[in-house]
Amino acid sequence: MLLGRLGLDTARVPHGDRHGLLWLDRGRLEVEDGCLRFVTRAGPEGGATLAPGDYQIPHQSVSAVLLGPGSSVTHDALRLLARHGCALCAIGEGGVRLYTAPPLLPDTSALARRQVELWAVKATRMEVARRMYALRFGEIVRTRDIAVLRGMEGGRIKRAYELAAERFGVPWRGRRYDRANPDSADLPNQALNHAAVTVQAAAAIAVAATGTIPQLGFIHEDSGQSFVLDIADVRRHDVVLDIAFGAAKEATKRPESIDRLVRRRAAELFRRREVIPGLIDAIKSVLVPREQDDAPQAEVGSTTDAEPT
What gap in Å lies between CA 136 and CA 149, rounded to an integer? Predict the structure, then answer.
């Protein structure tokens, strides 16, 4: 870091005042003269998000960098990001996979502490579960029995499968999934399996970005990714179905694997519908409802995708 940079080498911009996520792919993330830069030669024709160029990255005003395929990162870049509390997540195309994400090292533990407080008491754990179902189905759920909630979910999801299949013109004979042999399922069911994985990756990015605790779920319990699964389910009834049945329809016209078609469609939908920023907002809303907006807020500020300048 150059001397005399007005204290920028030790500055800490609160995450609440930062931009949210910065998407980069097909380039090299490095440091030059104390500044983070991203160099890409691919361009949109090569599948890159950015036009070819040498971009300075405002690492002090970004909460997390999402680094996509075809990218490399230097040790100096990792050091600089860590010094300024900016997370680096290695992701699949468009966020359809999360390969690694070091801790965000947020400047406040408010959201994680709030999650623990709500999870630790059965009554408040149920309240959060009800808020999650309300987000999914757009109505207040009256019951306070988790088994009843799960039953309601099953019936609504079954009907949602039928409506999505009808909308996309895909034959549908019901949900079937053999964990021992997932490829034995028909095309729509295979697409649903792959689509669920992509949305779980998006939820994992959102959980990493907010510094919340993956293991402490409010609906799911046994998995080490229980809270990730909870948050992924917020978009299960719309995004997952649109990805899966759209890809199944496309598979009748393209000689490509259903996994590849699902990933491509998921990446496009994640961008267009701002799925990951929406999941970040969902985490905040279920843990800190609007009536508690005066409580300490989450670590990530704006959830709008930022572009380097």
Answer: 12
**pLDDT tens-digit profile of 196-239?**
999 999 999 999 888 899 999 999 988 999 999 999 999 988 99
28-32 and 35-40: which strand pairing?
Answer: antiparallel
Dump pLDDT digits (tens) for 149-162: 777 777 888 899 99
Residue pair 207/85 in contact (Cβ under 8 Å)? The answer is no
Residue 86 vs residues 157, 183, 266, 283: alpha-carbon distances, Å: 38, 39, 26, 19
Q: In which element (H, E) is residue 132 found?
A: helix 122-137
3-class DSSP state of 24: strand
Contact in structure between 70 and 43 (CB atoms under 8 Å): no
Bridge partners (DSSP) listed for residue 87? 64
Owner of token pair 């999360």: 98
- In what side-by-side order are the strands of the sheet with 98-100? 19-24, 62-67, 87-91, 98-100
Could you tell me where the beta strands, DSSP code E, fall in 14-108?
Answer: 19-24, 28-32, 35-40, 53-56, 62-67, 72-73, 87-91, 98-100
Q: Which pTM does this prediction carry?
A: 0.78
Do residues 160 and 241 lie in contact, with contact meaning Cβ atoms separated by under 8 Å? yes
Dihedral sign for Cα 302, 233, 220, 289, please.
positive
Residue pair 43/49 in contact (Cβ under 8 Å)? The answer is no
At position 120, the amino acid (one-letter code) is: A
Check residue 306 and report its DSSP letter: B
In one-letter notation, the amino acid at residue 79 is: R
240-274 in b/e form (b: 16+ CB < 10 A) is bbbbbbbbbbbbeeeeeebeebbbbbbbebbeeee
